[in-house]
UniProtKB/TrEMBL annotation:
Protein name: Alpha/beta hydrolase fold-3 domain-containing protein
A GO cellular-component term linked to this record: membrane
Lineage: Eukaryota, Metazoa, Chordata, Craniata, Vertebrata
Keywords tagged on the record: Hydrolase
Coiled coil regions, renumbered to chain: none
InterPro entries the record matches: AB_hydrolase_3, AB_hydrolase_fold, Arylacetamide_deacetylase, GDXG_lipolytic_enzyme, Lipase_GDXG_HIS_AS
Family note: Belongs to the 'GDXG' lipolytic enzyme family.
Residues annotated as domain Alpha/beta hydrolase fold-3: 63-208, 260-328
PANTHER family (UniProt xref): AB HYDROLASE SUPERFAMILY PROTEIN C4A8.06C, ALPHA_BETA HYDROLASE FOLD-3 DOMAIN-CONTAINING PROTEIN
Species assigned in the record: Pavo cristatus (Indian peafowl)
Length: 355
């Protein structure tokens, strides 16, 4: 947050969170020549549906899209341009979900909204011109977390069609270790700082950022539990080339019972999908994972890629060597645009078209 928003909060005009949300929602795009765009509700969850106008001889692919923003920010508006590009580029029906945000609505509110909206599309696919056998979930950052969690839940549902794919764009997938190599190397790199990543996940879990210091230093989870999860969450599984920019292993710290009690749900896969059991991961659909070199969340994506591949799940991996967190949503921004963002988006569209 910047000084201006801090001043606004101190004089009582608005909170920093409210101010950022307001500015994010100010700009609206006009009509689209190639898409029908309509706001609806799926199971009381606001959604925006993007349907290609061009006639199709058969039902189209469906994409459930969950926006990023640390579970605190983001909206149907902030990711409007990206969703239009996905729908136009791949010829898919895209459903963007306006899930409830933290801190007002804590975990598992966002996850439940995304799950319920996805189930609605799967059960009513034909009504929206969608092939029920070709529905995927997609999300960026916190939205990638929600897509991974929804995908794991749906993998065990025998009463619904099987998801065709999951598309995870620099997802946040665990909250046990904020000192993996990518966190240490990129702790002060925009657009997501190490401290902010921990702040957001605490807002989602508890509606406040108490115990932020302990979460950042790693003294929020007992050592025995950390060691139990080291088979999945460890710098040992990060390829050496990603440690070349300098990395010193972090000393394991124990924690107090009081602190752990406030964050013990970090061990739930619906909040931290990287911690799901192999039996669940084994059932997951074909996957696309995008990571960026200059992103604190890079290693979350790398670790999940390994887990998926170890369990026989086909993974298409796109790594942007010059990319940073949030770059996909700025691929055609008026005030900053990056060629690697466009390259990442093209890779996502190509993957969708292959399904």
């Amino acid at each position: 947050m910047n000084k201006q928003t801090e001043i606004l909060e101190k004089i009582g005009i608005c909170s920093q969170i409210s101010f950022v949300r307001y500015t994010q929602g100010m700009k609206a795009l006009g009509a689209d020549q190639k898409l029908f765009i309509k706001d609806l509700c799926f199971e009381q969850v606001p959604v925006r549906i993007y349907q290609p106008k061009a006639p199709s001889a058969s039902p189209r692919r469906g994409v459930m899209f969950f926006h990023g923003g640390g579970w605190v920010f983001g909206s149907l508006e902030t990711h409007e341009s990206l969703c239009r590009s996905l729908a136009r580029g791949s010829g898919s029906v895209v459903v963007s979900v306006g899930y409830r945000l933290a801190p007002e609505h804590k975990y598992p509110a966002a996850y439940e909204d995304c799950l319920n909206a996805s189930v609605h599309l799967m059960r009513n696919a034909e009504h929206y011109g969608v092939d029920p056998a070709r529905i995927s979930v997609c999300g960026d950052s916190a939205g990638g977390n929600l897509a991974a969690a929804v995908s794991q839940t749906l993998a065990g549902r025998a009463d619904l069609p099987r998801l065709r794919a999951q598309i995870l764009i620099y997802p946040i997938l665990q909250a046990l270790d904020f000192n993996l190599p990518s966190y240490r190397q990129n702790q002060g790199v925009p657009l997501l700082f190490q401290e902010r990543a921990a702040f957001y996940v605490l807002q989602y879990l508890n509606g406040n950022a108490s115990n932020l210091e302990q979460v950042l230093e790693g003294s929020h989870i007992p050592i025995d539990i950390k060691l139990n999860y080291r088979k999945w969450v460890s710098e040992d599984y990060i390829p050496e080339k990603f440690k070349a920019r300098g990395y010193k292993p972090h000393v394991l710290l124990d924690c107090s019972t009081e602190v752990y009690e406030t964050v013990k749900r970090f061990c739930e896969p619906n909040l931290c999908p990287l911690l799901a059991e192999d039996a669940v991961v084994h059932q997951l659909p074909e996957s696309f994972i995008l990571t960026c070199e200059y992103d604190v969340l890079r290693d979350d994506g790398l670790l999940y890629k390994k887990r998926l591949e170890d369990n026989g799940v086909r993974v298409t991996w796109c790594h942007l060597e010059d990319g940073f967190h949030g770059i996909i949503n700025s691929f055609n921004s008026e005030w900053m645009s990056f060629s690697s963002g466009k390259r990442g988006l093209d890779n996502i569209v190509s993957f969708l078209k292959s399904l």
